[in-house]
Write a structure and sequence with these properties.
293 residues, alpha/beta, Rossmann fold, 8-stranded mixed β-sheet, 40% helix, binds 1,4-dihydronicotinamide adenine dinucleotide
């Protein structure tokens, strides 16, 4: 018996890296999986069928159930096609893992409009489109659901040279926070994953060694994702999980009041605000670096 027997999942960008591991583990736990992947290069150029096909073969060889889908998450019809593939092959949809992604890193002063747009398009609009079609189907089924947005510490904390990527990833966290509230009455949970793993996307950002390959194996991220998709996680929504190697962390919010006066009094002066800032600035939480989470 798997924890997801009878469930149906879509994983976008599941032809390699993290998405592939999520798809394999979802299938191992009994879910039928639509393995979506455009099959292009790391920067989003090109396309092909072999990446998605390879993962489907692997799932089937292990006794699981899966179907390939080659659409781009940036295309509305293709996003609708992913849900159609789930319904045609498996009759329903319970789980969406928004995982597809590309990189076009550049320091902001050198970034082109095309680099900005391509990254926002795949990560933010891509997750929006897939979620839009899945959401409608989940509401029609009336049995709840599970949605994961793959964000990044780049967006939640900050990372040099990734303004486009960070903006898209922070956008996904905002999308999640609002959708989680809207999903509560339908039993649909929506959570954020900020992963850390060695993949095609990060291979030139991490040291090349067997030790890194072992420590940052993308398969180490998937158990948290799969658990969030089980009935056991019905109450977990609106949360941000950082999962890097074998460390699982919750990234939560803290509100620090700097100064306050009665709301019926007039506004602060600029000088008063400046004084309050100077008096408290040394006690503010320090800015984190992505690797610290
Ligand atoms: P990856 O490059 O191995 O996987 C991304 C997959 O998305 C690829 O298989 C690619 O073909 C697919 N894809 C790209 N554009 C697509 C499109 N338009 N439609 C459908 N599929 C498309 O990289 P990785 O590391 O597995 O990344 C997975 C997700 O995790 C991404 O959203 C990435 O931004 C995020 N992430 C990864 C981190 C890491 O340490 N590996 C850190 C933070 C976030």
């Amino acid at each position: 018996m798997g924890k997801l027997d009878g469930k149906v999942a879509i994983v976008t960008g599941a032809g390699g890296g993290l998405g592939k591991e999520h798809a394999l583990l979802l299938a191992k736990e009994g879910a039928s999986v639509v393995v979506n992947d455009l099959g292009g290069a790391r920067d989003g150029t090109g396309s092909g069928t072999s990446m998605a096909d390879g993962v489907v073969e692997e799932i089937k060889a292990a006794g699981g159930s899966a179907v390939a889908n080659y659409g781009s998450v940036t295309d509305d019809d293709a996003a609708a096609g992913m849900v159609k593939a789930a319904l045609d092959n498996f009759g329903r949809i319970d789980i969406l893992i928004n995982n597809a992604g590309i990189l076009r890193d550049r320091s902001f002063k050198n970034m082109t409009d095309a680099e900005w747009d391509a990254v926002i398009e795949v990560h933010l609009r891509g997750a929006y489109l897939a979620t839009k079609h899945v959401w409608a189907q989940m509401l029609e089924q009336g049995e709840g659901g599970r949605i994961i947005m793959t964000s990044s510490t780049s967006g939640l904390i900050g990372n040099f040279g990734q303004t486009n990527y960070g903006a898209a990833k922070a956008g996904l966290a905002g999308f999640m926070r609002v959708l989680a509230l809207e999903g509560m009455k339908y039993g649909i949970t929506v959570n954020v994953l900020a992963p850390g793993a060695l993949s095609r996307m990060t291979e030139d950002l991490m040291p090349e060694s067997d030790e890194t390959a072992e420590r940052m194996d993308p398969a180490k991220v998937s158990p948290t994702v799969v658990w969030l998709c089980t009935p056991d996680a019905a109450k977990v929504t609106g949360r941000q999980f950082c999962v890097s190697g074998n460390r699982v962390s919750l990234l939560s919010w803290q509100v620090d009041t700097i100064t306050e006066k009665d709301s019926m009094e007039g506004p602060w002066t600029v000088e008063e605000i400046g004084e309050a800032m100077e008096n408290s600035i040394d006690s503010w939480p320090k800015l984190l670096k992505p690797m610290e989470v």
